[in-house]
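Usage

Read records sequentially. Each one opens with the input sequence:
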Amino acid sequence: MPAINNREHLENLDNLSFPSWLYLEHAARYKFVSQYVKDKVVVECACGSGMGTAHFLEAGAKAVISIDLNAETVQVAKANHALQRANFFVGNGVTLPLADGCADVYVSLETIEHVDEDDAYVREVKRVLRPKGLFICSTPNRDVCNPGRDLAAQPWNRFHVREYNLMELTDLIAPYFTEMQSYGLNYFPVWLTVVMRLIGRVLPGFLAVRMRQAYKVVTLFRPKPAFHEITPISGRRSPELFMTMSIRKG
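and closes with the structure output:
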């Protein structure tokens, strides 16, 4: 399949039919990451369909190395995204088929919560990045998505190994990275987070999760880009997803 113009390809992607809230969530993450990829070699872990790859290239990335554990997914991404400067590989995030220090930016969007060996995963990110390389990571906030549970508890999402609060995520990343900045998207009132956490600690099952989801459904009937905007975390609101940036040590 011949390579096509990146701008044309991106416009085709943006015209695909998605629920508006899902599209806005993805668009917010890609827009955020795209600020940091110009003239950079980017590794995208768990690339899925390759939509992020197209966005990063359009934003001026020198090259994007897109990796996914699922071989079938990689084949689909290759077939749908024959883009210049894009490379798709099958790979495990803990043992990547990449040379040391080969990338300037490492993008991990909703991936780390799926990994059994999370510390090994972060070490591998550091290995692949050049000194002072940038690690951009997003992951669900357990206090919102799995309220009342601790780090060892099985999340409601059966595909997740664990979910973090911000302190736990910081502790995981800090041995290998520095200058960490924390952002969030899909904010909920702090009072709701506190109530859901108390309910989750007291009541059996995932009742608190279901109550929080019911609240979110109400907000989705009137989706607004501002709800999905990625902004620095403050103490007034609780984000559904964390977005962190940090610099490789050494």
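Summary fields computed downstream for this record:
- Residues 186 and 228 are 5 Å apart (CA to CA).
- The longest helix spans residues 20-34.
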